[in-house]
Amino acid sequence: MTIDRNITPSHGQPVDLVLEEPEKRTLDNGLDVYLIHAGNENVVRLDVIIEAGSVYQSKRLTASSVGKLLKEGTKQYSSSKIAGMIDFYGAYLDVSVTKDSAIITLYVLTKYLEQLIPIIGNILTEADFPQEELNIHIDRQRQEFLINSEKVRYKAMLEFNKLIFGKGSSYGQVLEITDFDLLNRDDLFSFYNRHYHPENAYLLVSGKMPGDILSLLNKYVGVIWKQNPVSDKEIPVTGIIDNKERYIEKPNAMQSAIRVGRPMINRLHPDYNSFLLLNTVLGGYFGSRLMSNLREDKGYTYGVSSFITNYKHAGYFSVSTEVNVQHTDAALTEIYKEMERLRNTKIDEDELIRVKNYIYGTYLRTFDGPFALAERFKGAREIGEGFAYYKKSLNEMLQITSDKLLEAANKYLHPDDMITLVVGKTNNTNK
Question: Are the C-beta atoms of residues 237 and 133 closer than 8 Å to each other?
């Protein structure tokens, strides 16, 4: 068969996004459990999601250190015992800490779930934070911080959050070298006791789970993990923003890290889907305008992207790239030029269709499989929604017109609202 590559292949039949909401149950201790029955393999994933991220800490490093050391020993299990059991059953245990949450994740063959659930229950109730493990953790994190601090990309990541949310805000916290000498074991116990309790968490199970999953969860988590009086969790979302431009000189830098962005509307705002589509056009996929300009046309960078970062209580839009230092100012000019194009000229129909098709395909792909479903559900539940949120969001984006995107661009891509950060070198005289 001869293929004419000058002819665009015909589109396949559209696939409807059909998603069944998770089964919701409640354990004896009041902990909500969501069950996603999906997948053909005899594997199950268990997530315990706890509102114990860094925004709730009063001392920097506390939340991440608690999360890291949860696996390093409890009153019942030593760190070697936990690691040995996980390895013996071919499982995987991880604890991740974001700005909003701490997430304990266990992947395990369905037939071995009962053998390993007791570890989860013990981590949630009897974490011990051994001093020796804490010392090792702090030393390792300090060394990583010192190494990363020499990287313009890492420095830009930290500083941009502070610029976006302001000094004194929970989301704008910036780690400093002195913080490593201030943390102690009592800080970890205090944070753990204050935030790790059922009323501050929920449990998500996905995959091919055993028929007695609820009784197992109740026996090893629902009975032993006790409620704790809920403390005031009000956090300062925004702080003092000194200025909207910052240039951090790195004399020996080969590259400059550029960040341009602004605080952004939340996922339930009526304009959110319009801006999400607009962001995709600007820099949200490989064929975006920023990639075509800065990479393909100018050769300033290997990669550039724009994205929306969503936290539970806040969010921001950002353009991010690293360029050769000699192209720093030119790259900034082109970034603002692409925003200006979106404010002044409507997107043509061909480009709009192409971007909508990309988003459509991305949505379908990110719901493929039980563990992907679990990830998407976590994002929806964070804003008090379920899977129906994604179907509604997709349908809205597919109906958005060029006129609507032009309106969104003029509303949210105005240069006066943008914050600019450069870490590296620049010829800008306003440093």
Answer: no
Look up residue 117 and give its two tokens.
């659930």
3 state SS of 405: helix
Q: What is the token pair recorded at 298?
A: 């100018």
Domains 23-222 and 245-424 share a fold: yes
The predicted pLDDT at position 229 comes to 64
Q: Does domain 23-222 have CATH number 3.30.830.10?
A: yes
Q: Are 396 and 270 in contact (CB under 8 A)?
A: no
Beta-carbon-side half-sphere exposure of residue 350 (alpha carbons within 13 Å): 1
Which string of DSSP letters, residue by residue, matches 277-344?
A: HHHHHHHSSTTSHHIIIIIIIS---S-EEEEEEE-SS-EEEEEEEEEEGGGHHHHHHHHHHHHHHHHH
**Domain regions of the chain by residue span:** 23-222, 245-424
Q: What radius of gyration, in Å, describes the C-alpha atoms of the chain?
A: 24
Query: 317 φ, ψ to 5°?
Result: -105, 140
Tens digits of residue pLDDT in 273-318: 999 999 999 999 999 999 999 999 999 999 999 999 999 999 999 9
The model carries a pTM of 0.90
Structure tokens at 2: 């001869």
| Fold topology of 245-424 | Cytochrome Bc1 Complex; Chain A, domain 1 (3.30.830)
Give the torsion sign (CA, 27, 199, 385, 170).
negative
CA nearest neighbour of 275 among 427, 93, 408, 113: 408
* Residue 182 to residue 141: CA distance in whole angstroms: 13
CA 153, CA 71: separation in Å to the nearest integer?
30
Structure tokens at 213: 């999953």
* Amino acid code (one letter) for 274: S
10 Å CB burial of residue 284 (0-12, 13-18, 19+) is: buried
Q: Are 82 and 92 in contact (CB under 8 A)?
A: no
Number of helices (H), then strands (E), belonging to the chain: the values are: 14, 11
Q: What pLDDT, in 10s, does the model give residues 119-174?
A: 999 999 999 999 999 999 999 999 999 999 989 999 999 899 889 998 778 898 88
Beta strands in 131-226 (DSSP E): 201-207
Q: How far is CA 64 from CA 79, 236, 255, 283, in A?
A: 18, 19, 29, 31
Nearest to 97 by CA among 127, 56, 46: 56
